[in-house]
């Protein structure tokens, strides 16, 4: 984003990264949601969002995320050289109002009149120059005590977005209007009327406001949210480089969005109509819409082959995927799941996820590849009394000192060097060497080298669940 000419004002980007993006299943799941994937560019959506706020004079960002993703987010920030960020951990999900309140309390400690630019981690904006111009107006209005949102000019009668009805021009700030009404996600006929009217805009979910103004409005319209988040913030703890809010207090906060809590009832709301090339990338058809296409209108990613197909989105994260003789379908292939749906039914993918959850299927929320602060592991083979995994440990990474009551493990190093604790012994295990860890043995795996350590782990025993881990010591403060 180009400079938005806000010299002298403290502007703090606040990025909310708590969603799971279930409509983009099977890629987006709770353990690794859409904002952490590279969906619209070579960078992840989180990285693109944070870099959007890297404007000269802007403060380092505040990221609000859940505990499970904290190390992934820290690593993604490091990859794009974003320093000085405050990463605040939500102990439980409570929607956007409590999360934003916590960020406002953090900033207000030292700069109560600072302007916060709140944005979701999973939206795409193509027109950075237009964003800079809109931000300049938003900051000016926020300085006058307004809570400002951006209204995106609708390009189609979309039923998956909320709408904002523009009111009168706000005195003193060119291009900023009062808000006449917020309208929930409409049925098709109503959405068509909104587009024809020309006075309705998609609700982008981005807000700009002063920290003290937001907190005052919370006190007036959502005092229970403010009270519980204040307590959670007062009892916060610093955990490595993370700010951990108190779980008991935060869990008492109402589960409510900033739209319902503040934006709709407040008397100081404002909207800036803008064409930012915005998309919330909330479904596969939306992703098809913003992606480069072939002459046949197909979006093709990964090892894919199409024959006589048009208007399709085909993505494979693994095996060759062939699509023939169909139009306007979405095909997404991962290592453990395949999705096929009509493009105009892409919103219904959430129903598939709900069904998987109801059936107790792990594919609803977890991938075969599971990320940890030290690296990741990936399931390869699973049977009743044994399973095989690939484990990759980053340079300097260290698993917890642990033991298992129900399984034994056999490690075979295939790349790098492992430093292994086994009982009282400490040993180096090199490529093509192995070590056996009997059931109940206290052990630890470390990577003392400068390249990733890769090993194959064979587990055997009566119970192979991930909860059969007794951590005796951990470098990452995990329970």
From TrEMBL:
Residues covered by the Mannose-6-phosphate isomerase type II C-terminal domain: 360-474
GO molecular-function terms, A-Z: GTP binding; isomerase activity; mannose-1-phosphate guanylyltransferase (GTP) activity
Annotated keywords: GTP-binding, Isomerase, Nucleotide-binding, Nucleotidyltransferase, Transferase
Stretches assigned to the Nucleotidyl transferase domain: 13-295
Top-level enzyme category: transferase
Protein name stated in the entry: mannose-1-phosphate guanylyltransferase
Family: Belongs to the mannose-6-phosphate isomerase type 2 family.
Record domain MannoseP isomerase/GMP-like beta-helix: where: 307-356
Domain of life: Bacteria
PANTHER family in alphabetical order: MANNOSE-1-PHOSPHATE GUANYLYLTRANSFERASE
GO biological process: GDP-mannose biosynthetic process; polysaccharide biosynthetic process
